[in-house]
Specification:
Rossmann fold; binds adenosine-5'-triphosphate; binds magnesium ion
Length: about 300
């Protein structure tokens, strides 16, 4: 099978601010048409990494390849950016704001397509300072799409939105992906990463500490399921073939084969009442890898 050239490849990228190694030698590749998630606690280096890739800041060292070639001036015409923080020209409506950004590009995307893709109809003639959080993020997504980019960078696009607005935003991202565009997304919401991302990297202190497809990573770290047996239900001296850990009054078994482990429990004489079969999610993985909560 011929492996397609990644739309973006990053090799040993580094960027320091004084003594802080914000990005400390990261390498990864992004498949065309995929959604690539960059996860990590506050200060991990996510924004620095994507802003260097977006050519907003110069790297100290490292290589960035777009479709297999070193990024050139034209790279900016192929990408769209939704920044973590954005200030906008005041006293403009949403439509006027989009038009202003459209003028910066030689071949802007037709306005009606952007309005439809980002669900902007309802507030298109409203002052851009009078939007709800969710509406503002949708407008910023629209701005990122004005040049009809192949590659879209979204830096924490749903932070602070209510659950309904977040889901709405996910649908828009899915729609954009369905058009064949590639999305690079940073997020603190693990459910978002699980829902949207085909591949993820987890960063901490400027390094990549884990990478892969969400499902494969969960399988690697937590097996097929975690079976939790109340400690009181485990006969003295019982031993199990999968890794076991005591936590909160339960023995947690990380098992590769749920069926086999349950049979093993029965054979060991374990009373199955009170036994829990749980699937771990990216939140659990994040906590395991970074050893901290999200603040
Ligand atoms: N312009 C700058 N000058 C000095 N230090 C900076 C600058 N930008 C970022 N840093 C530092 O680099 C490190 C990485 O910051 P960065 O903003 O990339 O993290 P992040 O992963 O995006 O965090 P968050 O989840 O909070 O957005 C932090 O220690 C930060 O303080
Ligand atoms: Mg950031």
């Amino acid at each position: 099978m011929i492996k397609a050239t990644p739309i973006l490849e990053v090799r040993d990228l580094r960027k320091s601010y004084g003594k802080v190694k914000a990005v400390d030698g990261i390498s990864f590749a992004v498949r065309e048409g995929s959604c690539f998630g960059i996860l990590g606690p506050n200060g991990a280096g996510k924004t620095t990494a994507i802003e260097v890739i977006e050519t907003i800041h110069d790297p100290d060292s490292g290589t960035i390849l777009y479709r297999g070639e070193a990024v050139a001036r034209s790279f900016k015409e192929n990408i769209g950016i939704q920044f973590q923080d954005t200030s906008l020209q005041e006293f403009l409506t949403v439509r006027e704001t989009l038009e202003l950004f459209s003028k910066l590009y030689p071949r802007p995307r037709p306005m009606d397509e952007i309005i439809a893709d980002c669900s902007l109809e309802e507030f298109i003639d409203r002052d851009n300072r009078k939007l709800s959080g969710g509406q503002r993020q949708r407008m910023l997504l629209g701005i990122a799409l004005v040049n009809n980019p192949d590659l879209l960078f979204l830096d924490e696009p749903t932070t602070g939105l209510d659950p309904h607005a977040r889901r709405n935003f996910w649908r828009l991202v899915q729609g954009i992906k369905a058009q064949g565009k590639t999305v690079i997304l940073t997020t603190h919401y693990m459910d978002e990463a699980e829902y949207l991302c085909d591949d993820i990297i987890v960063m901490d202190h400027g390094h990549i500490i884990e990478s892969g497809r969400p499902r494969e990573l969960l399988l690697k770290h937590f097996g097929e399921a975690v079976i939790r047996v109340p400690e009181a239900a485990v006969p003295a001296g019982a031993a199990f073939s999968c890794p076991a850990e005591s936590e909160e009054g339960f023995v947690s078994l990380t098992c590769a084969d749920t069926d086999a482990t349950l049979r093993e429990l029965v054979a060991a004489g374990v009373d199955l009442r009170g036994v829990l079969v749980e699937r771990r999610n990216l939140d659990d993985l994040f906590l395991k890898l970074t050893g901290s909560g999200l603040d």
